[in-house]
C-alpha cells in the first residue's frame, strides 16, 4: 500500500485524472481517493511508490508520499 498527498487535486475530475495516471502505470492497482484530505491510497499493484510518484508528477500532479 502506498499513500500520497496531492495538493492540486480539488475535484472529481482531478480524482479521475489521478486514478487514470496510476492505472496507466499499474492497471492492477486499486486506487482510493479522499478529496477532502487530498489523499490517494494505492492498494495492491506491482509498482513501487517512487515510480508512481514520478508518473504523477510527470502528469502535473503535486504528489508526495504520505506516511499516514
Automatic annotation (TrEMBL):
InterPro entries: Heavy-metal-associated_CS, HMA_dom, HMA_dom_sf. One of its GO terms (molecular function) is metal ion binding. The keyword Transmembrane helix does not apply. It comes from Muricoccus pecuniae. It holds the Pfam family HMA. PROSITE patterns: HMA_1, HMA_2. The keyword Metal-binding applies. Keywords: Metal-binding. Residues 1-64 form the HMA domain. This is Copper chaperone. Transmembrane segments: none annotated.
Amino acid at each position: 500500500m502506498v499513500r500520497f498527498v496531492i495538493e492540486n487535486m480539488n475535484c472529481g475530475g482531478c480524482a479521475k485524472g489521478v486514478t487514470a495516471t496510476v492505472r496507466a502505470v499499474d492497471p492492477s492497482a486499486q486506487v482510493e481517493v479522499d478529496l477532502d484530505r487530498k489523499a490517494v491510497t494505492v492498494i495492491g499493484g506491482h509498482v513501487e511508490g517512487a515510480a508512481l510518484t514520478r508518473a504523477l508528477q510527470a502528469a502535473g500532479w503535486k504528489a508526495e508520499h504520505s506516511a499516514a
